[in-house]
Amino acid sequence: MSEAEQDVPVITIDGPTASGKGTITRLLAQRLGWHILDSGALYRLVALAARKHGIPLNDAEALRDLAEHLDVEFVPDAASGEILTLLEGEDVTAELRTETCGNDASKVAAIPAVREALLARQRAFRRPPGLVADGRDMGTVVFPDARLKIFLTASAEERARRRYNQLKQKGLDVSMRDLLDEIAERDARDRDRAASPLVPAADAIQVDTSDMTIDDVVNRLWELSQERL
Ligand code: CDP
């Protein structure tokens, strides 16, 4: 890492699925005027690209190749201003957020060669004035020198409820039972894998958001960031 990069402050927000990392990261970064890294999106993109090219989700070598050469662009939509994700030129913004894609992502994310291939791409998001990075191993592996490391948690029931409301809002038909099962399965896979398992960094601050509103969490993290920066 160059000295210039090291000077750019990073806040890492790790935690299990549906713990609110994405929303909190976006709001905190907005308040700070900093950049965002949604590292989960990169694993989701590898999973989507694999499907597109008919590559099985256990073919480590082919998946590493995909991850290394991932052709992805983030472009603002002229009409809505929303950021669109283009994979090999095709708009995959909606497909990227499906539960199927999240599940596939957690399978490719268990492969060490894929994680290794995405490291440099993730670190390249570290640009002035600062970066808020969201994922599973942001504080442990990708940015071990981060100024502030947060580990967000919430009970599995509360996370299932949040994911349920999120999907309902998008007009998708889901069952609470299925979501709870999927969350438990994904937690186990993320936590038990050998490569960069989901564990809080030794110097991370754990925040249980089960009984907190989004505003409560953002305010708490904002206070912590002001103490550290
Ligand atoms: O939104 P949600 O938290 O469910 O998923 P995500 O953050 O988009 O990540 C999708 C999957 O990618 C996770 O289940 C993890 O297995 C994997 N992932 C990872 O291993 N490391 C990261 N830094 C980010 C995501």
What does this entry look like structurally?
With 229 residues, this protein is α/β, with parallel strands linked by helices. It has one domain: P-loop containing nucleotide triphosphate hydrolases (Rossmann fold), CATH 3.40.50. It is 51% helix and 16% strand. It contains eleven helices and eight strands. The chain has a five-stranded parallel sheet with strand order 2-6-1-7-8. It has a three-stranded antiparallel sheet with strand order 3-4-5, with no helix packed on it. A hairpin with a 2-residue loop joins strand 4 and strand 5. Helix 3 packs across helix 6 and helix 4 packs parallel to helix 7. The radius of gyration is 17 Å and the shape is globular. The two termini are 20 Å apart. The model has no long low-confidence stretch (mean pLDDT 93). The chain binds cytidine-5'-diphosphate. Cytidine-5'-diphosphate binds next to helix 3, helix 6 and helix 10.
Annotate the secondary structure layout:
Blueprint (H helix, E strand, L loop, with lengths): L2 H5 L2 E5 L6 H12 L2 E4 H14 L7 H9 L3 E5 L6 E5 L2 E2 L1 H4 L2 H10 L3 H12 L7 E5 L2 H5 L5 E6 L2 H14 L6 H17 L12 E4 L5 H15 L1
Parallel strand pairs: 1-6, 1-7, 2-6, 7-8
Antiparallel strand pairs: 3-4, 4-5
